[in-house]
Amino acid sequence: MAQFYSPKSKKTKTLPQIIEVEASALDHQGNAVASHEGKVIFVPGLLPGESARVQLEKSKHRFAEGKVVKRLRDHPQRVKPHCSHFDRCGGCQLQYATAQAQREWKQAALLTLLSHRGGQSESEMTKGLAEPLSGPQWHYRRRARIGARVVRGQLLLGFRQRGSNRLLDIDQCPVLAEPLNALLPKLRQQLGTMALAGDIGHVDLVLAHEGPVVVLRVLAPVSKTQRRVLKEWAEKAGCQLLLHTDEGLETLTGAVPSALHYEIGQTASGEPRPMPAFLPGDFVQINDSVNRQMIDQAIEWLQPQPEETGLDLFCGGGNFSFALASLSKHLVGVEGVASMVERASARATELALTNCTFYCADLNGDLPDEAWAQRVDWLLLDPARAGAFGVLPWIPKLAPKRILYISCDPMSLAKDARVLTEQGYEMIRLGLVDMFPHTHHLESMALFVPRSRGKRRA
Ligand SMILES: C[S@@+](CC[C@H](N)C(=O)[O-])C[C@H]1O[C@@H](n2cnc3c(N)ncnc32)[C@H](O)[C@@H]1O
């Protein structure tokens, strides 16, 4: 008998185009969550407790997305966005709520996600919940990549517009560290007058211990005269200026720094901790104040002991490694970017940190047959957004007694927490890390220990 293909009918509930909803929470991407006739509706721009008339934009079987047409009731924590570019800039999403309320809702979203997707018990997580780590709500960003484009003869400098690839020209950014924010109008004034403007791909702004650094990504040769003009400008503006050409980095204000540095807080006895080294282009935690607190909390939660060996996976340039090494017998840091590993190793030698070794490896590959990939006392995981899925199969062999997971993506944390739980670990501490106030980014730290051990501690 002939078989006829008949597509499975997707029972998509038809909803009216405009509905009224009341939001009950924010999801982990900063969208309000509401419900209507049994369907979940995600609405950007609304806050929990607020009601609004909403236009449905995408309607799937179990959920829909809507756009606020008119807010009918505002939350008392709703505030006027501080930045004049907020309505159009894609950089921040949540400036219409107080920073305190953002943290409360992000924390609630984290708990919901970890219980729904990560198989964690909400009451157990609440028992081990730490106060969120937070710093100044403005001027916290110590690095940013600013897009550059010439449109109708005028240089635009800024971020992408919300929901678009187009560049929004900005004259200030209140989340940028003050010295970098102050450079924005000066940069525009100088570059805007130069023929070079059209050949600039982007501008990296970095605030290092050594001061503000500007890196111009240039896509064409830069003449001697242009170099002289830029050098004079940088000296006047009080920043280091580097050109990033196809050949690499070149500085216009002296020798190319072999490395810049950043501070990571103080030891328990009040001594400054050894500063990691980096170059523009390396990963660096964006928020200085929150980073220092993360390092303090990592030490408090991991409790490294002088006779113990620790493994810092996804170690970057040694942000956590240098602080933890001095409290441990031996520390191994592993990172995938070879140049960062070289910088971390060179810095360890410079600091005479002889118990600290760095290796380069792809942590999504098989467990390397290396001396370092053996039993350790504790493990720190600080993966990129994709999570630590590649490392999790190694955990039984490494058999750490404590695992500290630093997460920049709650979905990955939820997935990885589920695996760790299946491997016999339990999450005994959890805390929000407010690394990026006013944005939807949700960072967190979680501490896992073998289950029986955790029970004894509880
Ligand atoms: C979130 S950053 C953390 C870096 C460092 N712990 C810090 O606090 O500055 C993640 C790091 O993982 C590295 N990374 C990403 N994927 C990797 C992989 N497959 N193998 C090894 N390292 C990787 C990145 O280069 C980056 O340095």
In short:
This protein has 458 residues and is α/β, with parallel strands linked by helices. It folds into three domains: 18-73, Nucleic acid-binding proteins (OB fold (Dihydrolipoamide Acetyltransferase, E2P)); 114-135 and 262-275 and 286-457, Vaccinia Virus protein VP39 (Rossmann fold), CATH 3.40.50; 143-259, OB fold (Dihydrolipoamide Acetyltransferase, E2P) (Beta Barrel). It has helices spanning 99-116, 122-127, 178-192, 224-237, 288-302, 321-325, 338-350, 395-398, 410-422, 451-457, and strands at 18-26, 32-36, 39-43, 51-59, 63-73, 143-151, 154-160, 167-169, 200-208, 211-218, 240-245, 248-251, 260-261, 277-278, 309-313, 330-335, 356-360, 378-381, 402-407, 425-433, 443-450.
Could you name the CATH homologous superfamily of the largest domain?
Vaccinia Virus protein VP39
Query: What's the tally of helices?
Result: 10
Strand percentage: 25-35%
**Number of domain modules:** 3
How far the N terminus sits from the C terminus, by CA atoms, comes to 65 Å
Mean pLDDT: 93
Q: What strand order characterises the main sheet?
A: 8-7-6-9-10-11-12
**Structure classification:** alpha/beta
**Whole-angstrom Rg:** 25 Å
Instruction: List the ions, cofactors and other small molecules found in this model.
Output: S-adenosylmethionine
CATH architecture of the largest domain: 3-Layer(aba) Sandwich
Helix content: 10-25%
